[in-house]
Amino acid sequence: MSSLVLPTARLELVLQTPAETLAWVESLPPEVRAEVSPAWVERVRQTPPGDPWALGFVVKELGTGATAGGCAFKGPPDADGVVEIGYGIDPPFQGRGFATEAAEALTAFAFSSGRVRTVRAHTKSDNPASERVLTKCGFARVGEVIDPEDGPVMRWERGAVAE
User: Fold this and answer.
1) Per-residue pLDDT at 1
2) Which residue from 37, 72, 82, 97 could staple onto 56, CB 3.0 to 4.6 Å apart?
3) Contact at 8 Å (CB) between 125 and 117?
4) CATH number for the domain that contains residue 124
5) What are the tens digits of pLDDT across the range 144-161?
6) Alpha-carbon distance 33 to 69, whole Å?
7) What's the predicted TM-score (pTM) here?
8) Which of 110, 6, 20 is nearest to 59 (CA)?
């Protein structure tokens, strides 16, 4: 089975295998790795290759092939058609709009699946860059919620646009 690739204007989001996803988590600096959901890591361990809802995507810069970061869904769409995205761009690649492209590509993929009515994301209060990404991608701030793993976060959502 060929790997799923989500192309953008300047990037490719390449679906990783479970082993690649777990190796990426292990490669993160300890303070960043501490932010990764243990429940998500456990789901990855139990996921067969090729599942875009459970496995991470590596963000590669077109032209250079350099790895610029990663992104993922935090699980499959729920019964209400809601799926959550997460993304991170490595410091040397930040400030170039790559997070916006990655978030938009995940959102477009989710809506094109026919299984998603709402894409959700959470930001911490000290992350204005992520808030700008979501605003550019058409997300609306819904309000503060308590995430079981991250504590107080700002919830953002974007609904599917009727064609």
Assistant:
1) 45
2) 72
3) no
4) 3.40.630.30
5) 999 887 889 999 999 987
6) 14
7) 0.90
8) 6
- Residue 75 half-sphere exposure toward CB, CA atoms < 13 A: 13
Query: What single DSSP character describes residue 43?
Result: H
What is the tally of structural domains in the chain? 1
Task: Decide: 112 and 89 in contact? Cβ < 8 Å.
Answer: no
* Exposure string over 38-70, b if 16+ CB within 10 A, otherwise e: eebeebbeeeeeeebbbbbbbbbbeeeeeebbb
User: Collapsing DSSP states into helix, strand and coil, what is residue 58?
Assistant: strand
Amino acid at 107: T
Whole domain around residue 80: which residue ranges? Answer: 5-159
Transcribe 86-145 into DSSP letters. Answer: EEEE-GGGTTSSHHHHHHHHHHHHHHHTTS-SEEEEEE-TT-HHHHHHHHHTT-EEEEEE
The DSSP 8-state label assigned to residue 154 in this structure reads E
CA distance 6 to 102: 9
Helix (H, G, I), strand (E, B) or coil at 68: strand
